[in-house]
Amino acid sequence: MTGPATRLELLRARRQLDRMAKGTSLLRRKREALVGELFHLARPAASARAAISAEAREAYDALLEASAADGQAALRPWGWPERDLRVEIRPLSVWGIPASTILDRPPLLRTMANREAPPPATGPATVQAADHFERLVDQLVGSAPREMLLQRLGQALARTTRQVNMLEQRLTPALELRLAEVRRRLEEREREEKTRLLRVKVRR
């Protein structure tokens, strides 16, 4: 232990321990809230991921079928014209964590006229492949804000857990030891002082 064993030091250590206990309690509540938020988002996120995986499998299967049926050269025009996709988002905060939600976005599924591809040029396999990929992109855009929030919540939960562990396992025990040492040394000093006074009294 460093520093003098004084009553002022004892009082300071007690106050620090109280502040540490309050901070730990706040962090625990924050951790519980983050876990609750993650559980709240977990089920829709899992459903969205499953839907995206299923759509991706169908899209690539359809692409292989379209490539075999119509050839690579016939597929290229189906990506035209290029689109500048802009979404309107609103920032928000979840337990101090910055996030966003999509307010508006353009439709990603195009009609035959919007694709500017001549219908006779390809068969139904290519049309189905284009539909699948546009639905896949639509699902990815829709799930992006939730996935970003999940990632940030997970990072915040890990950081908060580390802080709680640091307080509970290292800082608080160290401060409790310090407090006990100050108290022990003060008690020893008081006993020594009482013994000295008794000796002085006996001599008189």
Give structural notes.
This protein is mostly helical. The chain has a single domain, classed as Helix Hairpins, CATH 1.10.287.3240. Helix content is 75%, strand content 7%. It has helices at 7-70, 72-75, 112-115, 124-203, and strands spanning 88-94, 97-104. Helix 1 packs antiparallel against helix 4. It is rod-shaped and about 120 Å long. The two termini are 38 Å apart. 9% of the residues are buried.
Question: What is the topology?
Answer:
Elements: H1 7-70, H2 72-75, E1 88-94, E2 97-104, H3 112-115, H4 124-203
Question: What are its keywords?
Answer:
single chain, 204 residues, 4 helices, rod-shaped
Strand content: 5-15%
Helix and strand sequence: HHEEHH
**Per CATH, which architecture?**
Orthogonal Bundle
Integer-rounded radius of gyration: 33 Å
Instruction: State the secondary-structure class.
Output: mainly alpha
Average pLDDT figure: 86
Order the strands across the largest sheet as they lie in space: 1-2
Q: How far do the termini sit from each other?
A: 38 Å
Shape annotation: rod-shaped
Biggest sheet details:
2 strands, antiparallel
- β-strand number: 2
Oligomeric form: single chain
CATH class: Mainly Alpha
Give the count of helical stretches: 4
Helix content: over 70%
CATH topology: Helix Hairpins
- Model regions low in confidence, pLDDT < 50 over at least 5 residues: none
